[in-house]
Amino acid sequence: MTNIITLSTNKIKNIQKLNTPQTLKAGMYLTWGASFLLLLATITGIQGQRHAIKTIGKDTAPSIISAQRIKDSLADMDANVANELLTKTGENKEALKNYEERRQKLADFIVSAAQNITYGDAERQPIITLQLNLGKYMEKVQKARDFNAFGNKEAATLAAYREAAEIMDKTLIPAADALNKANQQELERTYAQEQFSASKSLFLIIVSGLLVTATLVSLQIVLNRRTKRTLNIPLLAATFITSSFLLYTIISLLLASENLRVAKEDAFTSIYALRQSRALAYSANGDESRYLLDAAFSQSHERNFFDKTNQLMKLPNSQSLETVITASAKGEKVAGFTGLFADALNNITFDGEREATVKTLSTFNEYLKIDTQIRQLYRSGKLQEAIALCIGNNQGQSNWAFEEFKNAHQKTMDINKAQFDRAIEKGFQNVNGFEVTAPIAMSAVVFLTLFGLRPRLKEYSR
Which domain holds residue 284? Predict the structure, then answer.
């Protein structure tokens, strides 16, 4: 590109050394060459921008969301199995119903992921792992149910469930994470590459556009000085078209880049943190039920629960969650508050997002308070009361509180998802139609230059 600029500058400087016909022909050919360069730079830049928008908006981001939905479906399935096994067969119909609903959704998510494989084995292998091992997990779950139906096979029920839980924890959840990672890496790579490519394309477009404009203006000056023509209408029209097209292209590319930034940095960063937090919350909810179901490993399940809630949010020393919620509602950042919920709070961008995120924290806080009550009952030897509080769906019970959290959490995700979709759609609109308008505009410049200079050249051929 530097060589092209240097060559073009030298040509412009040498125009005055040529006679008038030679000068006009040189200017015309330079205009045509620069117009072709502008056309090439524009089409390349637009197509690169469109590819980045498509990769992030239509390929990687939806696949990441699908992978996260697979993960939280798996975790919720397992939580419902544990809830079901906490009671006698048939007593917890709600858990069985939720399990079946999740199983069906999970099947749809896996099929959808399989149909949207874009990056080869990095996606294919986790999907195969999910397909092969989900059936094994469900076989172990059914075995645990069968033992539970006998009523006096508690040890066998737990043994079967532990086998199912091991498949869930060591195979299925990691496979969902691997699927998510493959698409997340591609998203980050594409976005970083787009930022560099967009700057490079914009530079090429500006340089080539200015070169066309400068050449057309120089031709007008040459005509004025050597032929005493005050104005050449076709050249003036070509200059106007070039300047307008250049300005329109620059604005379109800048807007497309900004909309992609909004989609990725403002909306999807929050969506990603929220989807991760949802999967962790489902998994922690399962650990709460496992804590009551499997007394031999209750400490391990309790530790897992708190490890996951710490990933969701870790409070600064000497501060309660209520203090964080109050400060966050006022728009104040709480120093030392970390975790996925904190990530979402630190990326508030859209109308209604703060209120929805604070509501998410508030409802999760209620859930944690009930969890504390469950553990207190269990440690006091009141297992049945703890189970009733854990699997209950009435107000003040654990499943009710978790449902309230899910609803608030979903509203926060919906706000960001709507803004993500809107930014992606606007990004596509910004780069739409350039494959048609760019050739038309540059063809018009080429023909107008020819029509503007041809009569003058004929004057010198007589």
Answer: 20-454
